[in-house]
């Protein structure tokens, strides 16, 4: 997920205050550096498309850059190619998705010694030699596909390796968890075709953001394991459908998949989750009203004012790192340690992150917390990235490309 207030928040210095944590212990820092850390959701591309920053160098207004990634031990950072429901309605989603991929390709071309696009888990060890950060691509919202199944092949060729079927509103593929209306009853017939074609190509099916019905149908239809790329557990946020239910999480695990826990306050704090649910519904109503005004030839309301008013009326609650650890503990108890991972949502939540997990430099703090809770190093390695890489291998092995 990406909130378009992210960059403005950073530039205005109005984000939650940075968390001043004690340095992680040498053991935690060494483990973070040695393990293969895979973060399945970083929203850098959307911000790059709006305002360029050289992420191969220090970029203090962002949460992901190469120096801090290496400081934190991050090896594989899935770049989120995000398009919004409004961009879909305006017919701009496909073009914007390609522009974001272009921005990541430009970043890699600028710093081939620091970044490389990753398209297969088989290439991880070879490509990460020398300290490069590997950048696979995930598409957040299937809107850029339109109603053209052949676009899957095109985006696969450009590096897309997972697709979140829908985002904040129902699209041609699936119903969204945020929407009050569920016109498709889960997946559309086209959405079912998309799942099958993703299986054939070797693109991971991502059920974050979609309605419970859509997630259940996608899990059942997929011939290979599915992922939730950045979904916390609804156990802690009752009524917040954006987070995954225990039943759906078990269904993912039973078929070999993995649930990737985010760090965003809105997902791991009950009050913030309720505010997030309300925000998306209010924004959808706002966008619909603006569409009506535009169609009638009348002036539209200011989106920036809407966002600013909402932020003022709904201050972000402080959330400790322990809230993220609680999510991981719950997932491990519920699913087993082989089915839990991490998908931070860095650069996608307007700086609203758990204390101690404010940028990609902070993974040692997460490791420190896991060690303190009694996790062994082998299990920590699974959570940090081993589980996601296993699933990706299985999805790639199950592909039946011609």
What is the fold's blueprint, element by element?
Elements: H1 6-12, H2 26-34, E1 37-42, H3 44-50, H4 66-72, E2 74-82, H5 85-89, H6 93-110, E3 115-116, H7 124-127, E4 133-134, E5 137-140, H8 150-157, E6 160-164, H9 189-201, E7 204-206, H10 212-221, E8 227-228, H11 246-254, E9 258-261, H12 265-268, H13 270-295, H14 303-313, H15 321-335, E10 340-342, H16 363-372, H17 377-398
Parallel strand pairs: 1-2, 2-5, 3-4, 5-6, 6-7, 8-9, 9-10
Helix pairs in contact: 2-16, 3-6
Structure, briefly:
This protein has helices spanning 6-12, 26-34, 44-50, 66-72, 85-89, 93-110, 124-127, 150-157, 189-201, 212-221, 246-254, 265-268, 270-295, 303-313, 321-335, 363-372, 377-398; strands spanning 37-42, 74-82, 115-116, 133-134, 137-140, 160-164, 204-206, 227-228, 258-261, 340-342.
Our estimate of the beta-strand percent is 5-15%
What can be said about the biggest beta sheet? 5 strands, parallel
Q: Please mark out the parts with pLDDT under 50 across 5 or more consecutive residues, or reply none.
A: 4-20
Q: Please, what is the average pLDDT?
A: 93
Q: Give the topology string: H per helix, E per strand.
A: HHEHHEHHEHEEHEHEHEHEHHHHEHH
Radius of gyration: 19 Å
What is the assembly state of the chains in this entry?
A: single chain
Number of helices: 17
Summarize the amount of helix as a percent range.
40-55%
Sheet/helix structural class: alpha/beta
């Amino acid at each position: 997920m990406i909130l378009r207030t992210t960059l403005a928040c950073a530039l205005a210095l109005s984000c939650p205050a940075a968390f001043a944590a004690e340095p992680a212990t040498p053991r935690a820092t060494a483990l973070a550096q040695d393990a293969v850390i895979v973060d399945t959701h970083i929203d850098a591309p959307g911000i790059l498309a709006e305002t360029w920053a050289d992420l191969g160098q220090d970029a203090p207004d962002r949460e992901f850059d190469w120096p801090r990634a290496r400081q934190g031990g991050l090896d594989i950072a899935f770049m989120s190619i995000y398009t919004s429901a409004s961009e879909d309605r305006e017919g701009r989603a496909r073009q914007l998705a390609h522009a974001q991929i272009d921005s990541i390709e430009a970043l890699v071309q600028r710093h081939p010694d620091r970044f490389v696009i990753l398209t297969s888990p088989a290439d991880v060890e070879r490509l990460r030699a020398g300290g490069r950060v590997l950048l696979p691509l995930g598409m957040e919202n299937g809107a850029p596909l339109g109603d053209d199944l052949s676009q899957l092949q095109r985006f696969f060729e450009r590096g897309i390796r997972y697709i979140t079927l829908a985002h904040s509103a129902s699209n041609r593929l699936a119903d969204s968890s945020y929407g009050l209306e569920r016109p498709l009853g889960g997946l559309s017939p086209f959405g079912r075709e998309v799942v099958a074609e993703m299986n054939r190509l070797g693109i991971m099916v991502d059920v974050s953001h979609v309605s419970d019905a859509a997630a259940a149908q996608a899990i059942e239809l997929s011939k290979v394991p599915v992922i939730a790329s950045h979904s916390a557990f609804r156990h802690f946020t009752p009524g917040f459908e954006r987070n995954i239910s225990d039943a759906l999480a078990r269904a993912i695990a039973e078929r070999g998949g993995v649930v990737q826990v985010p760090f965003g306050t809105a997902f791991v704090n009950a009050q913030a989750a309720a505010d997030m649910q309300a925000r998306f519904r209010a924004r959808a109503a706002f966008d619909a009203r603006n569409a009506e005004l535009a169609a009638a030839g009348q002036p539209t309301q200011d989106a920036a004012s809407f966002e600013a008013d909402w932020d003022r009326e709904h201050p972000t609650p402080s959330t400790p790192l322990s809230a993220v650890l609680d999510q991981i503990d719950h997932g491990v108890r519920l699913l087993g340690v082989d089915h839990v991972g991490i998908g931070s949502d860095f650069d996608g939540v307007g700086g609203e992150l758990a204390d101690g997990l404010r940028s990609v430099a902070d993974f040692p703090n997460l490791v420190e917390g896991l060690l303190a809770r009694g996790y062994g190093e082998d299990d920590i390695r699974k959570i940090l990235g081993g589980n996601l890489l296993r699933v990706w291998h299985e999805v790639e092995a199950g592909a039946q490309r011609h």
